[in-house]
Amino acid sequence: MIRNDSSLTNNEKKFLLDKLQKAFDKHKIGDNSVEKQQCNNCQNWHQATQYCEFCIRKYLENNFRNWTSENEEIDKLIQECQQKTISPQCVIEWINYDQFENIEYLTEGGCATIYTAMWKDGSYDKLNPEKQILERFGRQSVVLKKLNNSNSSNVHWFQEVTLSFTLDNTFQTLAVCYGLTKDSSTHDYMLVLQYYDNDLRHFLKDNYHFLTLFQKYKIISVIAYSLSKIHSQNIIHRDLHSGNILYHAHTTRWYISDLGLSGPADKPLNSIYGNLPYVAPEVYCGQIYTTKSDIYSVGILMWEVITGETPYGDHEHDSDLAFSIASGYRPTISENIPLEYATLMKKCWDANPDNRPDANIILDEILLLVKSLYEEMNRQQEPTIQSKNFKSKIKKFFKSKNFKLKIINFFKSSSTKNEDKQVIKDIQSNENKGSKIYKIQTSKVYTLNFSIQPRNSTDEEQQAFDFEISDEMEQQYLKSIGVGNSNKSC
């Protein structure tokens, strides 16, 4: 298609083909159906087109002697990751702290402190086939995430971080992490992350009134797709909330972050770690995290995206809120929320984990809603739709075997500017939003273990909740935490 496009110059065609091949090469590694080529340098049969993955790994192995974290376990972890590298842009490495300049404090986040910085040499970018060396990108902005109280005797958190480099080799759905460094003054370890422009919570705060319904569906579909890939590897996120969904403005793509970082290194064994409104009620009641616990978090995210509001934003994140959620309290569903969307959302936050759909079902349901938007767009016959055979194209598109993949790829590549031109208008309740300013909460450690069975509330109970807790619930709550009629502190 690109080669035959007469509107493009030869240089433009070469540029586009190069970009496409660069992106596609990552997906070819490990695909046994891909035709292999023999490398002229190492004689191995490689799957990538623009480079030999074996030459990259050999280059990194030869470089082992030129760096050290001064910790044997961490060195071993990084070396193992490098020997699974699939692309020049997917190398995890140890980075000396003096490589960073203009380090500026950004915010506190759960068990970490976040900084922005400039990486002087930048990450690896491409393999030079003549010199057989990896060349770097050059100066680039990054985020440094200092893991508070991390130390050389406890690398459990880093073992979990390596999932981001082995699990995500193919799917590219997780926030990009370049490697590890150590704060020269506090000696805490710091993750070196790609710079992202925003998280979902702040993005909604700044842009909600400009979002179409299509764009909101897009956000949820990407979250569901990413989570399906994580769950397919038997991995549970454990701390999925809007502060961990990151937005990259240049590519207009969303990424899940903080995979596996389920709390600080010194978290007590009988405690839970998370952003309270997103934590599944069964976890409050002593049950373990499961993939269905992540699905509960998706349900809360669906409400947050469709309303633009912070879940339980006017309540303190304490044992009172946790007990109310375990007793069936959920965010209010307004009449302006599309019925099919609301039904799916309620299934996701059902008190019984067995009643919750998996991530693939959520994705399928959201894509059906996207399909209905396209069909509605066709029925409206807006002036922006010029093609006479648009209807037949729409039918053909959604009947194709790989329409789901087409939608996902479109979501990954479409720009916000183009989406703003969608003729389907959003169903919003802006007039009801008021001017509330809610405090944005982060993840932290809670000691909760209610001796009750999580349940769904009736419609009448949901209306009455709003923190008007009955005497019966009060006594049940006090009994569940093992105290008398004195107070409610956990």
UniProtKB/TrEMBL annotation:
One MF term in GO for this entry? ATP binding
Q: Does the keyword Nucleotide-binding apply?
A: yes
At the top level, the lineage of the source is Eukaryota
Question: InterPro entries attached here?
Answer: Kinase-like_dom_sf (IPR011009), Prot_kinase_dom (IPR000719), Ser-Thr/Tyr_kinase_cat_dom (IPR001245), Ser/Thr_Kinases-Pseudokinases (IPR051681)
Short name of any one Pfam family annotated for the protein: PK_Tyr_Ser-Thr
Which ranges carry the Protein kinase domain? 100-368
Which keywords fit this entry according to its UniProt record? ATP-binding, Kinase, Nucleotide-binding, Transferase
Q: What is this protein called?
A: Protein kinase domain-containing protein
Q: Which organism is it from?
A: Diversispora epigaea
